[in-house]
Amino acid sequence: MTRKVLIVDDSKLARMSVVKVLKSLHPDYACVEVGDANQTLATVRQEAPDFVLLDFNMPGKDGLTLAAELRELNPSIGVAVISANHQIEVIERARATGAVFIRKPLTAESLASFLAGAAGQDKLAQ
Amino acid sequence: MTAAPSIELSELESDALTELVNLGVSNAALSLREMVREEVILSVPKVSLVSREEAIAALGEKELSRLVGVHQDFEGDINGRALLIFPETKSIELVRAMVGGELSVEDMIELEQEALAETGNVLLNGCLGTIANQLGRSLRISLPEVIYGEGSDFFAPSNVSKGSDRVLFIYINFAVRQRNLQGYIAMVLDMPSLVVLKELIGSFIERVAGGTASASSDVC
Q1: Going by C-beta distance under 8 Å and a sequence separation of 6 or more, which residues neighbour residue A17?
Q2: Nearest by CB: A35 against B33, B213, B217
Q3: What angle separates helix A12-25 from helix B11-36, to the nearest 10 degrees?
Q4: Cα nearest neighbour of B12 on chain A
Q5: What are the phi and psi torsion angles at A48 (to 5°)?
Q6: What is the mean pLDDT of residues A114-126?
Q7: Per the CB < 8 Å rule, is A15 touching B23?
Q8: 3-state class of A31 per DSSP?
């Protein structure tokens, strides 16, 4: 079943690298990119993605704040915060919002595990 | 008068360098977190290629007081100097964060140099090591040296970066909130190193994002 993934990162290169990993796992998945964190909620309303992958360290609004807002907007969306900063405080804050923490550099294994886990939770909810 | 050789980074190359620095500093911050036992907050890194004068001016705008810095030179395919800089008034706070509040002021002053060198060593090695690994190159890194002064003292031409008029100015602010501690990391590269760096970044981009096209707010 094809799914839609929203990628939020201020770095174009980082978005490209996420797309590359995603396409290697699921060539059929649709993806939408957002380079400005402030546009995230509007894009989520418009595009209704199944998963959102958020960069943590962004100008304006960080990934953890966005994760909390997204969970409030629609708890059924699978949200992951991707960050090179893997200090325990950051990981705990990500988990507290209900998001999955994924360490940068992103690997196919960690993304596959998130997508499978979030899809499983979705089934349970249904 | 001959025109100064110039090298510019494309938007994507600049993004790639920012990502590399972010990875490096994040890994380094994890080590610093262990040392101060408290979260180290990192800002979004800003990377720019500027002249020495611009780097000095940028530092002067941000910090009015005297500064303390730790620098380490690196050599390999890329030669340059990495610096960790913060206001001199904060250096005793750093010692306190590392050793706890049990020591007398005299002891802390005695340990200050050592604490600064050690912090610089952990942060700069962590940062440079990660970047070198990602680029698939190894670097020899010198021992840390502590210097006090103003912006111009930190960006003075050194043995490894003489003849260079460009500074790869990486501005990242790190803070330990409870300690009111913050600082910056900067890197100075000579012109041949910048050329090599640009090539290595090109390979890095191809490796992590090759074969994908991207545009903001677009469907991919």
Answers
A1: A105, A106, B208, B209, B212
A2: B217
A3: 90
A4: A13
A5: 45, 60
A6: 68
A7: no
A8: strand
State how far the Cα of B90 lies from the Cα of B104, in Å rounded to an integer. Answer: 17
Check if A43 contacts B (Cβ < 8 Å): yes
Q: Give ∠ CA B148-B149-B154 in degrees, rounded to 5.
A: 95
Residue B87 is which amino acid?
P
Q: What pTM was computed for the model?
A: 0.84
Cβ atoms B117, B53 nearer than 8 A: no
Q: Which two tokens mark B140?
A: 């020899």
* B168-195 per-position pLDDT tens digit: 777 777 888 877 777 888 888 878 888 9
Q: Which residues pair with residue B185 across a beta bridge?
A: B84
Cβ contact A6:A32 at 8 Å: yes
Amino acid (1-letter code) at residue B216: S
| B12 contact residues in A (CB cutoff 8 A) | 12-13
* Amino acid at site B48: S
The CATH number, out of the four listed (3.40.50.2300, 3.40.50.300, 3.30.70.1150, 3.40.50.150), of the domain defined by the range A4-125: 3.40.50.2300
